[in-house]
Specification:
The complex is a heterodimer. Chain A is an all-alpha fold. Chain A is built from 10 helices and no strands. In chain B, helix 3 packs parallel to helix 5. Chain B is an alpha/beta fold. Classes of the chains: A mainly alpha, B alpha/beta.
């Protein structure tokens, strides 16, 4: 292993250990929150007509909830790690180390993806005894999952770079991540929306992440899978480009 | 042989403020070097530029011949910096923290014996499994020192390592740094305890308002000071002759301290004036100038203000 590779794997391991040390907050809590949503909405919407032919509302809801949780946790993992290090001042250990932008990027994003895999797996384990979930398109499922988790991890990294205090991260979460994830078709098909919100949903990248993920399970969704993959790839590409530019130029990190 | 550190025309501006105005000097391999200056002189900015935490506006820095921008990986592997602030990662214990830090620098299990040695020498062995958040300030400072040395860098910068620490840690630290220095490590020290710098450093740079005001060996720096000091404790009711009054630089424990310009006023001439006026003296002490005097001379500020 080269010194650079060892540096990368050390940072990756450290980031995984960081969320592992508080597993109750980083995995258990979001799973419980998502399951509460499932419980409440499944009861409230009981008896409604299937959303897609042969897909009951509870089945429809589960992929959306998983993806919403993935989106929120991928963002939270990178953004909270970076802002904590900034506020505590221990980011200097990393900044003084011989690690380049790619190692920073790769380690932070991969650690967030690992966390979201755990969160998604825990949710599936809990709901599978009660909800029938076929996997029609496993490749699309994995691709959309990785692109979604990766994109939000990168967005979290961007937020962590820009933010100077915890309030800034809270603003990102409260005014961007939460509204966009709630208005993305987690709880409904966008076809049920009035024309304006139906059109507006199509400009929300989170809609494609959730819709594409749902397609992986049921083989049917609100938009064709190629559109979801295109949006997810574009979103990931754009976030990556912005983040790497920030890391390479030392934006907001080097005074 | 390339120098341990080469600072070439380094400038740093924050808007209209010029924090560094073309700083230029070299530190040779194996030196114990002091970088001194009052608050806001530009010391920390310069150290942060060397460490890669701050981008310079112009100029270049090399560590062991490696440019800190173009060849940043090699430069950073050659450098260990003990930061001034007491920062730590609350998620890990002492040993984990040191192993993680070693990993960032590409070091694996081969440095674990060195980590164990540092833990013992810095009196951290009993705390090796204790969470960083549970350590006292002094213990955290020890870990910071170990973190900077974990990859065994040939150049070490200690930014105010003894600020607010007890005498025991100070002694431990200096013993440890002296040993490392003996083995060939280049040590750069900033401190506002000037007696420490005078005792430890072979060469000293004094920086003020973003410029290097002096850069000499400690002995040269002390020798160039054109004054000596004479402390006189006068007998009850006695007063200093009028011609000596302008020489009084201050009062120390009831004694008058006279500042004598070596070329103009000898001790003999002072005593002659005292004898002539029949001034009775209880006690006499002389003092050579120390680094603090030089510091005040060059920067116009007291060392207490330096940091």
């Amino acid at each position: 292993m080269t010194p650079n590779q060892r540096g990368f794997f050390t940072l990756l391991k450290k980031e995984i250990k960081r969320f592992w040390a508080v597993l109750g907050q980083t995995v258990t809590a979001p799973v419980i929150t998502a399951l509460l949503y499932l419980l409440v909405f499944a009861q409230a919407m009981k008896g409604r007509a299937p959303v897609y032919p042969g897909v009951e509302y509870t089945e429809f809801l589960v992929p959306g909830l998983i993806m919403m949780t993935v989106i929120q946790n991928a963002f939270a993992n990178t953004s909270s790690s970076l802002i904590q290090s900034k506020v505590m001042g221990n980011l200097v250990f990393l900044q003084m180390a011989p690690l380049g932008p790619w190692e920073w990027f790769g380690a932070y994003v991969l650690a967030a993806i690992v966390r979201t895999v755990l969160v998604a797996a825990a949710m599936l384990i809990v709901v599978l005894p009660f909800v029938r979930l076929p996997v029609h398109e496993p490749l699309a499922l994995v691709a959309v999952f990785l692109l979604s988790s990766g994109s939000l991890a990168v967005l979290g990294l961007i937020a962590g770079i820009v933010a100077q205090k915890f309030d800034h991260i809270a603003a990102f979460t409260n005014f961007l991540i939460t509204p966009m994830s709630f208005l993305s078709g987690v709880f409904y098909s966008v076809h049920a929306l009035p024309p304006f919100w139906f059109a507006a949903s199509h400009f929300n990248p989170f809609f494609y992440l959730i819709d594409g993920f749902r397609f992986g399970f049921f083989g049917v969704a609100d938009v064709p899978i190629w559109q979801s993959l295109l949006w997810a790839s574009g979103f990931f590409g754009l976030m990556t480009a912005i983040c790497l530019w920030m890391l390479m130029t030392g934006y907001k990190m080097k005074r | 042989m390339t120098a341990a550190l080469t600072i070439s025309g380094v400038r740093k501006t924050y808007g209209k403020l010029e924090a560094l105005k073309g700083v230029e000097f070299q530190i040779q391999r194996g030196e114990f070097f002091g970088l001194l200056g009052p608050n806001g002189a530009g010391k920390s900015t310069l150290i942060n530029i060397i460490a890669g935490l701050v981008q310079m506006s112009a100029g270049s820095v090399t560590v062991m011949g490696h440019d800190t921008v173009r060849d940043f990986r090699a430069a950073r592997r050659s450098l260990g910096v003990v930061p001034q602030e007491l920062v730590f990662d609350p998620f890990f214990n002492v040993t984990d923290m040191l192993r993680i830090q070693a990993g960032y620098y590409g070091c694996g299990e081969e440095v674990w014996p060195w980590i164990d040695e540092m833990l013992q020498r810095l009196d951290l062995w009993d705390k090796r499994k204790v969470s960083m958040r549970a350590l006292s300030g002094g213990m955290k400072r020890r870990v910071l020192i170990a973190q900077a040395l974990v990859h065994q860098p040939p150049v070490v910068i200690l930014d105010e390592p003894t600020a607010g620490v007890d005498v025991e840690l100070r002694r431990t630290l200096w013993r440890f740094m002296r040993d490392l220095h003996r083995k060939g490590t280049t040590v750069v020290l900033t401190t506002h305890y000037l007696e420490e710098a005078q005792e430890m450093c072979e060469r000293i740079a004094i920086i003020d308002k973003g410029e290097i005001k002096a850069l000499e060996t400690t002995a040269q720096l002390l020798a160039r000071h054109p004054f000596r000091f004479l402390r006189l404790k006068l007998a009850e009711g006695a007063s200093l002759p009028a011609e000596l009054q302008p020489l009084v630089a201050g009062q120390v424990n009831g004694s008058l301290e006279l500042k004598l310009e070596t070329a103009k006023t000898s001790f003999g001439s002072v005593f002659a004036a005292l004898r002539r006026d029949g001034v009775a003296i209880e006690d006499v002490q002389t003092r050579d100038p120390d680094l603090e005097d030089i510091f005040v001379e060059l920067t116009g500020r007291k060392a207490e203000a330096a940091a």
